[in-house]
Amino acid sequence: KIKVGIAGYGLCRFGSAFFYQNHPNVEVVAATDLDPARCTKLAKSVGAEKTYPSCEEMIKNREIEAIYIATDAPSHGRLAIQALQHGKHVCSAVPAVFGFKAEEEAHQLLDAVKKSGKKYAMNETSTFHAELWAKRKQYQAGALGKIIYSEGEYYHDFGPKGLRGYNPKNGKIDANGWRRGLPPMWYPTHSNAYYVSITGGRFTEVSCLGTPGLYDEHKENQHKNPFGTEVGMFKTSEGGISRMAVSWDMKNAHGEKGRVYGQKPHNSKISGARPLLPPGVGGGGHGGSHGQLTNDFIESILLDRQPAVNIGDSLNMTI
After folding, report:
1. Are the C-beta atoms of residues 221 and 213 closer than 8 Å to each other?
2. Would you say 239 and 126 are in contact if contact means Cβ atoms under 8 Å apart?
3. What is Dmax (Cα atoms) for the chain?
């Protein structure tokens, strides 16, 4: 059993939503959240006996072998780097890095993974959507040929309340919360996975357009971002084209979707079934991807292989 520490029980309660506490090869030994009440609830929900006031403190526990980071987006990269430097395997919520210094932090995270020799995975839910996973397996088998054109979409109309700036440090809405006026393409992984997670490739050029956001939170925010919807046209490392879109205010549209068109016929007979899950581990939310991501991360440690969403794909989706 891998001894795991879990960080984060905020707005989405993702600390307990990915089945670590149910996995037969996991022992959840510690939990943390910056808010004491949420920390207590997280520990109870995942069966952790030890609690810590912060992820930084929990990382120091030498008993812990792997850390699951389900905290606010701006802290993902920093906490992942610290955990790797303390010899822990790391699984992080999306995106891998965030903000004005994301590119600099991406290099630091990549360096930390290489130096530590530990596994790093990002919980990109689109990767284990049934339709994306099928195309991934078909592409890997050569059944699609080069991907000529692909599309990815992440549409989530937060409404004005959702963009008012939830602050994970106090569990309240305030002007400095990271979601306030969040630039759509700073949270791009759910759409970008519809090329990167299928091919293992990357984007080499981009041209992007945005439309002014519908809510007041787009007019004035710490990100200086006026856009509620952004659409990028990318050139891929295969020489193909991808259209990737993220929107916080598009009506009558929701979720993670994508389409892939290759050189070969689209109706491949290659089986693209997702891996079977261990007893007690469900698929969970986001198209049944939660349990798949956790199981893939744990198996990558036990079998000493790369996770499906490894450091390279994680950064190529994020940056």
Report:
1. no
2. no
3. 55
